[in-house]
């Protein structure tokens, strides 16, 4: 544990709180990609299967349970809640997200640290998380009015991954000096996907303008 990982975890948790706040208080998921949320549910379910095999710490266990539980909860709200599901912009959530899963799984079968079920699934979750935001970003490009909560949610998600990159860099120089190519490159790809969004988010905040992404 270090300050970057803790900040990353808290930023990630804050992003989920912002999203649930939007869904619970506004009874709306407008502007949110169900496909991205489904991919995140797959990410956390496959990454944290070690809950049943290993114990690291109370903090680690609680955070894993929170991420699994909230990801499933969000998908449930968007698919089945009688009010919230009516606000889902299905016609704008057009990315075929199921095409992302097979290549990520195949890549995990060939590029991993050790060939075990838990390790391959953990690696798969990293590859899938790197691209899971794509449906959301594409949806935002098609949305004319991006509300503040949605914009803040996506920004916090990107900030969380950026902080985790700093965590890996810190651990390399201060702690282990081990090269961890899989999380490094996955995190770098994921952060790069947010670059365009970061630019327009900061620009809109600086100029006190409504957030809008170019089509």
From TrEMBL:
Cellular-component GO terms for this entry: endoplasmic reticulum membrane
Similarity comment text for this entry: Belongs to the ERD2 family.
Pfam family, one: ER_lumen_recept
Keyword Hydrolase in record: no
Protein name (record): ER lumen protein-retaining receptor
Protein's organism: Abeliophyllum distichum
Subcellular compartments: Endoplasmic reticulum membrane
Database matches in PANTHER family: ER LUMEN PROTEIN RETAINING RECEPTOR
